[in-house]
């Protein structure tokens, strides 16, 4: 993972282009280009902010694009093609480890747990993690948060992912469900809604949650280059204000109401399935209820990365996290 980031970032950090996405002093709403790492019900508060007009009320015109993958999202951010990235906080650490002069700063948390689930081929109401020993486990991409949280959880339960089971992690993210569906692996680590789809079809069954097991951490957050934040603090503050309102809206409302609000962003997904997924994430506390990234959460992230062998050296919370906008939003 570090080698891949090294090649990608070397050129970008040497010659980052000037940013031109924000609306500056022009009249009317301030334009912000936001790139999300993937389209996922896991990010329900973001879509609620859009569907409920909260960004518009804050004086913002948010243009949302899906950038498909952490490395691609960070490339877009560093190149100035987007102003804000919704991506795992670990990507800001990878950038810092490459010696960025204009580091990427975490300024608003969206999800506070891992979003994946352990899916088995048969239902198991008395599931024990020891069942994974000597099994074939279809995991996620090395260096990404899902895989790191997965390995962290396995080790927590006394399972060495390198010696106690057959770990498969060379399948592209988009193809993992199909691989399991075609017979690869005894267990698989899946995001929603695929986990619930497998349950509906009787092809797999959720037996555990990696989000519950790995604890609170800044799993997905809004990030921007430090220079952008310094040049456009009012736009960032307006964004975080709207984000906090959306988080509180999600906290107050039922899964059915939330599912109806975000349905336009998942037109090919059956409404009942959206509600099921929202309920599962909400019940385990995956949606952050405010934008702050606490130091304990950050340190948990560092521990997860250390266990995965992806952290060169600890990166202090104060170096890559700016909670001032969240604090202001909470004090309104």
From TrEMBL:
Keywords: Signal. It is found in: Periplasm. PROSITE patterns: PROKAR_LIPOPROTEIN. GO terms for cellular component: periplasmic space. It comes from the Bacteria. Belongs to the bacterial solute-binding protein SsuA/TauA family. Residues 1-20 form the signal peptide. It comes from Paenibacillus sabuli. This is ABC transporter substrate-binding protein. Pfam families: NMT1_2. Its main location: periplasm.
